[in-house]
Amino acid sequence: MTSDVRRPPPRLSFFGALGPNQLKGLFWQVLVVGIAIAVVLFLWSNTVTNLSARRITTGFAFLGREAGMPIADSLLTYNPRDSYLWAFVVGVANTLRVAVIGIVLATILGTLIGISRLSANWLLSQLAAVYVEVLRDIPLLLQLLFWYVLMQALPAARAAWRPVEGVFLSNRGLILPAIPIGSPQLWVLGTAVLGCIAFFAIRRWLVAQQMRDGKPRPAWPFALGLIVVLPAAVSLLLGVSWKIEWPQLRGFNFVGGLTLAPEYFALLIALVTYTSAFIAEIVRSGIQSVPRGQWDAASALGLRRSFMLRQIILPQALRVIVPPMTSQYLNLTKNSSLAVAIGYQDVVSIANTTLNQTGQAIEAISLIMAVFLTISLSISFFMNWYNARIALAER
Amino acid sequence: MTAITDMPDVPRARRRQIGNPVLRWLRANLFSSIPNGILTLVLLAVLAKGVIGFVQWGVANAVWLTPANDSSACKAARGLGACWAIIPEKYRFILFGTYPFDEQWRPALSVVLFIALFYLSTRRALWRRELGLIWIGVLALISVLMWGGLFGLSFVSQDRWGGLPVTLILATFGLAFGFPLGILVALGRRSKLPAIRSLSVLYVELIRGVPLVSLLFMASVMFPLFMPSGFNIDKLLRAQIAIILFAGAYLAEVIRGGLQAVPRGQYEAADALGLSYWRKQRLVVLPQAIRHVIPPLVNTFIAFFKDTSLVLIIGIFDLLTTAKTAIIDPAWQQFSVEVYIFVAAIYFVFCFAMSRYSRSLEARSRR
Q: Global pTM?
């Protein structure tokens, strides 16, 4: 280490050019890597012997075989005659369905609670503190089982609770009115997404213009035009119907509307409430990290409160908030694998069933790892990009 | 978003400092403005409704005791009141699982020893090398108590262990072995030797990239495949190994943060004294690095204390699994909410105490 400081006396060594420090380093590396390789080889040879003794062929050929496992609740169409590969894809879709919606809801709820903790209203801040404290200190799996038990204890479909007209809560899950989405509706939504992208590009250009000459240029007419008027025009032109489908009780179950199965609903509630407690703490410490002088200075300039929050406080708070938020998103995604405990078929649950049916343990677990590593890396990549974008440009 | 307009940081109009202090407090903290007052009233109404409902269910209409193995009183009160009677009925099983009934003082004593060990570890005066010896001593004592076979204690095999001691064992042994592992990996990740650095990075990122559930599946399903035929180890030990590997990766990242916080001058000073690499780390760098990260270490410990509950999925009898098993009993199976609340309270007490402690440490280091 830092041999320039120590200046060891020159020594002749067998390796000539290598100094004693490098030699020691080389020795350690060879030793550690050697041990690692030996351990892996040992495990590998055992595994090969064991697998051949159990007559299990390694490889991913089993993915093409018929899965034969039922999947109750899925976004994609699936029947037990489909292949294991398709079952995996359905599992990944189920994982993403709970993770993406969970991340969005947990962020909203967590932000609200984090702000509530800082409220001048003593009661509100205390309630928020109790919420955070209780949810953080109880294992997620226990909370999940608790919510699932509550779901199962709900009345049957015929006696379902109706908190709001058209919304039913029963032991069949949560049933909501929905707009059926087919390809014409997707066209309109696609236009809206394109409009959003175009709007952000235009706004960027407008800000660049303002940077040059200092004249503010309003962006809202573009927002209105591209995100509201344009899709509405497309919708009218194509004559797309946006009729809401109301769920109705027929016999013992509901028809129409959108059904969130009890397993999915319990998992979503557990993940959202648990993660929101952590997000609340992150948001709180982020806002508190903005020095008081920034608030004072902004009010001294006579800025409107919303402008002050948006342009002065939030950019500085986000710098503190985003990195730990990334790890919460990753945690939520990984925690969605607890689904296996209540029978929601996410990718881990399906891999586990596959493993029990085929005995292809190594392949199944490497698939899980591949899926989660991909999701983790994508979230990290996106959040790092976002973090770099919001980082303050410091001199 | 209305709350943000009432940020304590925003200067508020000066109020008159007269009148009853209680009213003044109420006015300042609950009714500072009209929207704030409305918010307070709405919250009070919701809170009152919730509290009254809970008290009716959990206290007023609750069934506290029933004759042994008779849940008829509970069934009569179902939907109206809680059935706390299930706790005295089942608590021995929930806390200690299938450990032989007459020997259950041994796991109970182990739990006390664990708590004493945690308490001792929070004493600043004991943060010396001897603490390591205390840990080894107490953990050995607990092993003897749980297994027996010595000093006239009857032998109890680990597949009969269950409940709270198993949760504490998984978490504490996970820390005791994961911590040295974490130190080695953290040092490896900051090493100048490329092979060692990349091995450490690979280990940390692989473990942190996948859910603990999949590691546990691996331990329970794949471990037998990895081992030479005929060699098999117990399920609990396999889960313990998975938790140690898991804890090691997370602890390594925390310790690495501490290593980065040690100023460069300290490394250079140690080099100038001619200390070898290991002596430099042991005498100069690690003591400072670890002191620096004790609060996040406690938080990591809280996290995997909670995560030990995941062993339920591979069928190991920790506290949560015994609770879930206790309510399989047909006479009592409708009263799972009460059991979950009981177990949640146990977890809460442990985690809350630890998080309070970690916060007091943070507050002290900030001063």
A: 0.82
